[in-house]
Amino acid sequence: MCPYRGGLLAILSASASLLPCVAMAQSSDKPERSTENEGAEIVVTAQKRSESVQRVPIAVAVATGETLASTGATGIGSLKVALPNVEVSNNVGYILPLIRGVGSKVSQAGLESPNAIYVDGVYYASTTSTLLSFSNISQVEVLKGPQGTLFGRNATGGLIQITTRDPSHTPGGNMSFTVGNYGALGMSGYVTGGISDKIAGDLAFQTSAMGDGYGTNLFNGRDVGRVQHDFGVRTKWLFEPGETTSIRLLADYSDHLGSDNVQRYPSGAAFPPGFGPVYTARPWDTDVDRQPRLRTKTGGVSLRIDQDIGNLTLRSITAWRRTIFHSSFDADYSETFVRYTDIDQHDRQFSQELELQSPAENRFSWTIGGYYFNSAGQYFPIGQILGPNGVARSETFTKQTAKSIAGFG
After folding, report:
1. pTM value?
2. CA–CA separation, 7 vs 162, rounded Å?
3. What is the spatial distance between Cα 324 and Cα 98, in angstroms, rounded to a whole number?
């Protein structure tokens, strides 16, 4: 049977194999063995090459796709159930990772986390674009401590490195369904196969929704803390024109809509004079005149080329990403019309990385490379305030860009 990939809320599940389970065809830089087998060698890419974790002088925690599924870790926000000393929180749509307690609670357009997130070798700069679900994961590595030598200036606390499956020439796939409380429904699937002896592709998707929210907005009776839809799709294509060349083309897109950015005072809290009465309600309820809304659309493409040159390996990774983020919520947390906030944020990034590596089996092994990065974060917060003289509206437009180029080794 294919492994079940359920969710934390799942209380009833059914998993069906559409095709024979995929025999994962791993490339030379991907782990080939599961960490679940006691005594099995654990292969990691913590130093941008495949090697046993016992040879890596870095604190590394590893979880395979099977481990994530068995522990119920369905996304990056639930990594802590599978990996120690890792906490990933969601601050009104911004993903804030903490590794060994090191991180940042600051969230704003153009600001990058001190704990980097990489997916298939591509750095995800925007903290709004990292709402990742795990439907086709091969392995997740968490590198603890500063990793600036090989992974750049934004890995001072560590990094989370996610590796997806490589497509297989052998047809296969799986699908799973979840049903949970609060009317939660989910489905995820994976299919792979070859179209020739040199080309193979795959497609992974997941979708989920909640019929009811965790709480109610007492002001209008509508649900809050509800995911209206969460959809993601990812595809990878592997082209091997010769024994010394492999080319991978990857693309992904996700769309999230909900009221999970709800703001509220704790039950029993007293509002300042003029804002409202003492607030008493269930923990997830709120009483606000502005219905919360959170929408995130993100996607990207990347091209990776691995070329053997004699006994050396040359690698190129080219990537482009774009995120559109909107959050609207009542900023005074009360039923009185005082202030609300709309945030429209657009992020985009382009990166190019080149690496040259010596053979891993050499007594002295080395990696050298160069990296170029270009990003921009544009921020349109709009605050509306009701004061003594009526309605006052303030608008702030900001744009922050970053361009960097560096060599490493």
Report:
1. 0.81
2. 19
3. 24
**Region 10-408: CATH code:** 2.40.170.20
Q: Write out the chain in H/E/C secondary structure.
A: CCCCCCCCCEEEEEEECCCCCCCCCCCCCCCCCCCCCCCCCCEECCCCCCEEHHHCCCEEEEEEHHHHHHHCCCEHHHHHHCCCCEEEEEECCEEEEEECCECCCCCCCCCCCCEEEEECCEECCCCCCCCCECCCEEEEEEEECCCHHHHCCCCCCEEEEEEECCCCCCCEEEEEEEEECCCEEEEEEEEEEECCCCEEEEEEEEEEEECCCCEEECCCCCEECCEEEEEEEEEEEEEEEECCEEEEEEEEEEEEEECCCCCCCCCCCCCCCCCCCCCCCCCCCECCCCCCEEEEEEEEEEEEEEEEECCEEEEEEEEEEEEEEEEEEECCCCCCCCEEEEEEEEEEEEEEEEEEECCCCCCCCCEEEEEEEEEEEEEEEEEEEEECCEEEEEECCEEEEEEEEEEEC
Return d(Cα 128, Cα 356) in angstroms, integer.
32
Joined together, the tokens standing for residue 14 give 């059914």
- The dihedral through the CA atoms of 205, 209, 215, 217 has a sign that is positive
Domain positions in the chain are 10-408
* Count of positions (residues) in the chain: 409
Residues contacting residue 266 through CB under 8 Å, at least 6 positions apart: 279
Task: State the pLDDT confidence band at 102, using cuts at 50, 70 and 90.
Answer: confident
- Span of 25-39, 67-81, 199-213, 353-367 with lowest mean pLDDT: 25-39
- Encoded tokens for 134: 């795990």
Residue listed under structure tokens 């983020």: 325
Going by C-beta distance under 8 Å and a sequence separation of 6 or more, which residues neighbour residue 37? none
Q: How many other CB atoms sit within 10 Å of the CB of residue 35?
A: 18
Nearby residues of 72 by Cβ (< 8 Å), 6 or more positions away: 6, 7, 8, 10, 78, 81
Higher pLDDT, 315 or 71: 315
pLDDT tens-digit profile of 221-256?
999 999 999 999 999 999 999 999 999 999 999 999
Question: Which pair of tokens denotes residue 186?
Answer: 């989910």
